[in-house]
């Protein structure tokens, strides 16, 4: 009897030893990731995310199909339990858009286009993109970017703990003139952040028992089967080099997974519901809550303000509005541009290049192709050469129907090759008003100074 007990005790002990030894060994190999520099608390992530989510939901056509949202929340929460760090109140909503896209706001507010559910081949692929988005939240990439932008604008704030005082963080930032809405630093990530979200997303999939190959499968599906429907996804989640290979490497580190979950009947039932829905509203023809773009009430002012972008400074008429989305900026007269269409305005940005050695001509051609894919009504009608701030520029003319009924537009795309990437400025105006805008556009071009 005594003999038996001790052998049982030995077995228990050795089992405990195996568990003790096995678990840290398996964990030790995974890539360790921590959130980067951040001025905000996790609670402030939630507060900022809520404000941005309210803004997003005013601008986006939500799907509002209860079964679909319930499924996304079941799947999303199953994954989110394995996200390290703060326990954010995750919520998931479908968006009635055909493009393949998904985004996450700080604090756990996730949005998935119906096109993403439609394009995924298996539940593991959908889980893959959701785990990637959850990883952005867990690693606090949105408020990390906001912190960097804030420090760039208010370098001394880091000493004063400026964001700790009275009032909500959103009100404080708005008071300082920093945009925290849907069109802001939250929507476009760096390639480093993308790799981190891929790696942590892979770990979350593995921990939740999902086949981590699902994330590779999702990117393969985007790139090989739906290159045009996924332009938006890759503009907010830019492709790091060797994306799929890096995910494969993390899967190797994690080791084999017993009976990974790859698919479910649930997923295919939800996919069928999505596919049977009436087609989504066409962009630019949304419901009545979207203000229609129209002719602005005032001509462009001759008085200019300066806008400081990360890579350049540009002036714009002081009676125009500034809309920011990541590093992309739109200057437009009030009423002349909406979320879905730009009838009047100037769009500027510096794009990262997939090929860092690409020439001005090559990079411009690539950009023009993307614009024409995104708007098939446009066509290229010519190009010429010029200069901006002393540097060589290409000027590409595009022509197509204006969002103003019955009008046409000729758009001028100016591109300059910078060390950081490709600068572009796209000037948009209906032909019937082009005379009135010439002087303002010329003054904006002349005001550009690269840093
Ligand atoms: Zn991403």
Short description:
The protein is α+β, with helices and mostly antiparallel strands. It has helices at 2-28, 42-59, 66-80, 114-119, 123-138, 141-153, 157-160, 169-175, 191-207, 213-225, 231-236, 243-254, 265-276, 360-374, 434-447, and strands at 91-95, 102-105, 109-113, 304-308, 312-317, 321-325, 328-332, 345-351, 379-388, 391-401, 408-418, 421-428, 449-450. Residues 132, 136, 189, 194, 197, 237 line the site of zinc ion (ZN).
Q: What does it look like?
A:
With 451 residues, the protein is α+β, with helices and mostly antiparallel strands. It folds into three domains: 1-25; 31-276, no CATH class; 304-450, 3-Layer(aba) Sandwich (Protein Transport Mog1p, Chain A), CATH 3.40.1000. It has 15 helices and 13 strands. It has a seven-stranded antiparallel sheet with strand order 6-7-8-12-11-10-9, sandwiched between helices. Strand 10 (391-401) and strand 11 (408-418) form a beta hairpin. Helix 5 packs across helix 9 (191-207) and helix 10 (213-225) packs antiparallel against helix 12 (243-254). The protein is globular. The relative contact order is 0.10. Residues 1-6, 15-27 and 284-291 have low confidence and may be disordered. The protein binds zinc ion (ZN).
